[in-house]
Amino acid sequence: MAPIERITLFKIPNEADRERVLEQYKILAKTAVKDGKPYITNLAVGPLFPDPRNKGFNVAVKTTFASLEDMQYYDNECEAHKALKAVAGPVKEDVLSAYFESVV
After folding, report:
1. Average pLDDT estimate for 91-97
2. Are strands 37-38 and 4-11 parallel, antiparallel or unpaired?
3. DSSP secondary structure string for all residues of the chain
4. Residue 20 lies in a domain
5. Is position 40 within any domain?
6. pLDDT digits (tens, 9 = 90+) for 16-50
7. Does pLDDT of 69 surpass 80?
8. What is the C-alpha to C-alpha distance for residues 25 and 47, in angstroms, rounded to an integer?
9. Residue 19 lies in a domain
């Protein structure tokens, strides 16, 4: 089974709120564990460059998991992800998330 690649895009209107979300991702990168061990195999996060193709989304996240089970753990049980959602949830205008197995 190939790794699961997940792309998440946020629309966060306020710059200070965007910075808080980015800082929370830095915390998540250090604290997301499953069975006491890190389980996110790769995490890339950053503000998007201004571009009309972004359609208003301004923060991008690419997360890689070894398995679909690990991604489901992230969504449903991970305490670090719950803390992130507590910060991002109230300040996001919109969010888009998609995941896939790469064929390349």
Report:
1. 98
2. unpaired
3. -PPEEEEEEEE---HHHHHHHHHHHHHHHHH-EETTEE-EEEEEEEEPPP-GGGTT--EEEEEEESSHHHHHHHHHT-HHHHHHHHHHTTT-SEEEEEEEE---
4. no
5. yes
6. 999 999 999 999 999 999 999 999 999 999 999 99
7. yes
8. 12
9. no
Assess whether pLDDT exceeds 80 at residue 1.
no
Overall size of the chain counted in residues = 104
- State whether the Cα torsion 33-78-76-25 is positive or negative: negative
Q: Is residue 47 part of a domain?
A: yes
Amino acid at 36: G
Q: 52 is in which domain, residue-wise?
A: 27-59+77-103
What is the residue type of 66?
Answer: A
Q: Which residue carries 């998991």 as its tokens?
A: 65
Number of domains in the chain: 1
Alpha carbons 22 and 47: distance in angstroms, whole number:
8
